[in-house]
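Researcher: Quick sanity check before group meeting.
Model: Go ahead. Protein one:
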Amino acid sequence: MGKSAELLQGTLDLLILRTLALQPLHGVGIADRLEQVTNGVFVVGPGSLFPALHRLADRGWISGEWGELQTGRRAKVYALTAAGRKRLTEEKRNWERVSLAVNQVLAEGL
């Protein structure tokens, strides 16, 4: 497996919102899912993940509730809110514009 990549600022928020659009998850579950879906390209550590989760919750885009996992351990499970769903739609549009622009620059071979 290759080396993990650094995320652009703001990209982690988009990836978390998209992951939670599929199902509510606890923090480690979110990190595991991102690593799995990206084939290990994005490995998100707690020092990046938990501040992002707090930021998204403060903005009202996700909510977190304490619950018990199958292992019996307590963890906060995060879910996307209606405002978060709307923000995800906006962020996906923005990402499409940004990725198109970056691809255009790369294709030009400056």
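Researcher: Fine. The other one?
Model: Protein two, sequence then structure:
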Amino acid sequence: MSYKCWRILIAEQHSTLQDRIEKAFRELGCRHITRARSFRELLGVTHYSHEPFEHFDLLIINGELLAAAGVDPVRFFQSNSQIRHGVIHDARRGQPHAETVYANQRRQLRLIQTPDRPALKSLLEQLDV
């Protein structure tokens, strides 16, 4: 499956950064993008959706959003079957290169420092196998 056809969910409370992330994905050819500005909206889209079989190929979420909600990222990811891959971006805890936080045969959760276009492109290519 080409990542250009992926359904992507951006969970970011800062609208400027959310716009930049969406622009980077669009420049990479991705067209199916959904946005959430809070953890509550994220839950509405994934856990409480009126479309219970709506799946996302990739969730990119700000680590601050998870920390503010007091949520364990790995447990949240493992319990959410509507998300195939996850990427947490965190300027303080992330590394220059993507770090795997959780992985099984079909799903991965990664941590990055900055959600810029080169980092996102590299991640998409790694996950698109």
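Researcher: One line on it for the slide.
Model: DSSP finds five helices and six strands in the chain.
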